[in-house]
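Example 3.
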Amino acid sequence: MFFPVVAVLAAFLVGGVFILAIGESPLQTYSLLIGSALWWPDGIGYTLFLATPLIFTGLAVSVAFRAGLLNIGAEGQLYVAAFATAWVGIVFANLPAAVLVPLCCTAAVAAGAMWGAIPGILKARFGSHEVINTIMLNFIAVAFVSYLTQYHYRTPGDAILETAPIGANAHIPRLARFIPGFPERIPLNVAFLLALVCCALVYFFLWHTKWGYELRATGSNPSAAEYGGISIRRQIVLAMAISGGLAGMVGINEVLGYRHRYYDGFSDNYGFTGIAVALLGRNHPVGVVLAALLFAVLTRGGVPVDAFTQHVTKDIVQILQATIILFVAAEALFREGLRRWVKF
Amino acid sequence: MIELRNISKRFGAVQANDHVSIKVEPGTIHAIVGENGAGKSTAMRIAYGFYTADAGEILIDGQVRRIGSPQDAIALGIGMVHQHFMLVDTMTVADNIVLGAEPGSPLSLDLQEADIRIRALSAEFRLSVDPHARIEDLSVGQQQRVELLKALYRKARLLILDEPTAVLTPQEVEEFFGILRGMRKQGKTIVIITHKLAEVLALSDDVTVMRDGKVVGRVETKETSAAELARLMVGRDVLLHVHKPEAKPGAQVLGVRNLSVKTAAGAKPVDNVTFEVRAGEIVGVAGVEGNGQTELVEALAGLVDPLRVSGDVDLEGQSLSGMNPRRRRERGIAHIPEDRHRRGLLLEFALTENAILGVHYRRPITMLPGDAVLDDGEIRRRTVDIIKRFDVRPPNPDLPARALSGGNQQKLVIGREFELNPKLLLVSQPTRGVDIGAIEFIHDKLVKLRDGGCAVLLVSAELEEVMSLSDRLLILHKGRIAGEVNPQVATAAEVGLLMTRGH
Amino acid sequence: MKWSKALLCLAPAVLTATACGQQSYASDDRSKPRVGIVFDIGGKDDRSFNAAAWNGVRCAETGKWPDGKDCGRPGFGITLRDVEPGTPVNIEPGMRAFAERKYDLIIGIGFAQAPIIETVARDYPDIHFAIVDGVSDLPNVASLVFKEHEGSYLVGILSAMTTKTNTLGFIGGMDIGLIHRFAKGFEQGAKSVNPNIRVIENYVGVTDAAWNNPGKGKELALSQIAKGADVIFPAAGNSGLGAFDAVEDMGRDASGRATHFVIGVDSNMNMLKPGFVLTSMLKRVDNAVYQITRDVVNKQFKPGLHVFGLESDGVGYAIDENNKDLLSPEAIRAAEEAKKKIIAGEIKVTDAMFQ
């Protein structure tokens, strides 16, 4: 668990060299980056808001990974789910909130789960690799919902590719309502709490239920799982569906909590960043939350760095993210190197 | 010839070698024995340059030498044959032998010359093998000869052999020993790493015994005995022979009629096999590895796609056809798989989680609500119970299975399967990679289970083991039952013939 | 847990950073008017729409274009900061980053920012906002819009008078109203010259990524060329640059004249591939942002609709030394005549966005 922290610090060091090279002060840049991401209330509020989708996708990738599957398709799953959420919110706009909100949430989870289950079924049934299928389904998902938005659900005359707004009953409250002094303008909403609850649920599911046990056993050693009477095929489909469902919950944050409509292209590569979040978080719910927060800090802090430094652009954030991922991915190498370096 | 002096090597928390000193006289066969994890292989890998020692020195012909890589070792005339062969299956024997030491200039490969040298070496050391055959078409014994030739081709004067007989049939072992004796006569020095005491006594001149990373004894072979070596290895007196009372077979438990298993490629690893196992008896299955034992057991355990299995299998008169592994377990079949790393264990998981594999989905492991939640208290009780009764060490239920030695891993698997109170136990290679001390323990447990009325089907590549444990012995050859013998009466030679020739 | 230990070590570092971060907010020179600009996804180097906006604010800052040449108007010595969001989610934080620091004017580029600027403007009623290409009726937002259809009509005439195949190409970024305005005006202008002319219309995509895909832009241009188009008008941000490559690939005839032409959009792009760019449909975003900046500096900010059409030189077409030999005098005459008629109201150009 110590290693990801080392990787992050090392990445900041490397990033610092870059900043120095282009003639700015790394210390000032970093304090601007981190400071603007953590100040009360806007900084922290936006950081938590930006972390919310990453927690969902990080969890999604982690669950699949625990089953030995690489879900590259969280992006497509969350697109389909966000659209489904908006669709329910538009079509059933007149239902009371107590019915409509759960219905929208169910739609988000169900749509994501369904889209995730497809590559699961393909793998279980035909042995085709989930990485390729999830990537392909990403393209299909993005194009499909764009098509639906463009030709069927957009408000006529709207220059922006987005659906009509969902019914007011489908809105979920912003956290400003519960925290005194927290401004209403910050879009941090109940979905963030839902993300934390999901972390706890995923943790309990994976380590304290028989289903989680079967899922992890499948990922750890499918031959042994089979020997232990576990159906590998079922686990593959199940894991992909759960993973997709978690990714789909991004739609709750986006549609019910933030924009109140489906906005095409809303995702800042949440599904792909989720892979990095899971990697950095060691596929553990607690790690996922911390990693999601870190990435949110970088995203939130990147904009002021872009705006208020002379030379550093927001690309520094990408350099930091990439270096972190590189270090985490190269952990084995890095460890060996460290050991030798310490020894000699 | 070679001498290790005070070699120490640490891997993380494990002191693999602790001031190990081994001296090998030129022109002798020197055996290094010890249980798994005693540090035999580590010491020899250091001699071959795979690892660098943390401390100590290596002397070749009386001179201190630095061996930083296998290239250094080869240059000094050291060759090593690993337990798992390092050959390229799709290339020919000659290609493999010259690989890494290609004759001719870098741009033109002179295989003509290589061919001549290989043939000369084959003749000199009676290592007959066709230089133009592909490796994948050779038997295991022939592949081993290729490994030997590879070392000799590089002008090795000292050959280090890591568990060379593990993969050979009794006949092949005899032949192999003949080759080694011939090499000794030609002036080669041989170091053989093994844990089979009979072979040590039959072959070697000197023996170094290791335990827990240390050298605990060095003796001349003609002045020692199996019992003494075993005591040195384990650190206490060991029973080398199974003591078992007469079997009292009861009713038939497992009935197998015309069982065949087909592979996707169309081969038939199990071909029309019929036999029965009764309560209270151990039926052994002997055979050279790869003659259908694996497929037979996996088919009985339900691990083979039902579409590829034909014939009838019943348990206490009720058919098992088409049942998945879980339903078979529920019927009372326990299974100790041949490869505990591949099948039997979740190596990254804690002992607690390994102790419930196969029963994790039902009471008493699960509890309310909905029988979905794992009962951690119950799991821990069960694990601690297995650890106690099967002497799993270290007795820490939270360790990952990977942290255990092979023997302790096996004891955990056995304990878990015994916990099912099975009617039928399928057990493959129960003592593979297991220490002598644990072997004794496992054999004893198997006999006790039998005496409790369980039907046991035992598959083992160790002829000695199946012969001493079984009450009846089936010999598998090319997927068919080549014969059934009474192990109390039959000799190893007879069984060996059935294993290799099938009649 | 070990995590908590690591966090414990990190906490002091983070706290110091937070404190420092707060300080650095004050580092801007508050004596000067401060202007923040948030670009569209394409970024300020798209040589087109965003680049025009960048030209305008730089001119207002220093009196010079970004390349250092004099822009012919006075600079105001403002503090200028910019954000290139890169993804849609960064637009709002970018605007808020300026708003939180009480900037005097925040300019949003592109119609997609309209709803965002409305949200932010509502939270900061004391700050002036300007949105290019979008419309808002908030009392602190100026909406800078252009009659692209009129400019497109004129380049449509120029294209129709130049084509030898009677086939023209139009490449839009996204299939949306704003771009339909370009397409419709272009087609109408071309058909006013020759009703039998054919305009092939293609769009790069349906998401924001469509503005940033020169590869696809080139593919579309090549396929239009294959269908006979010899003048192509891309209105697709960065993606349009692909069309420039495509016509250049087609080469020149024996006399040294290009066989196929492209029309620049928003900025003057005649110099990008000299000889291949027939003209550029100018959308003087630079003028618009310069003017709104000037208004703020002079404390004369006016909210509401600011329309830039032919009459105010808000749109037009570019003729310079790079393309003056490409256009026939008749063509220019026809375009100038149409321009007068449009200003006079004698020609009504269809506005496909608000028809």
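Chain A touches chain C through 51 residues (CB under 8 Å). The mean pLDDT of chain A is 90.
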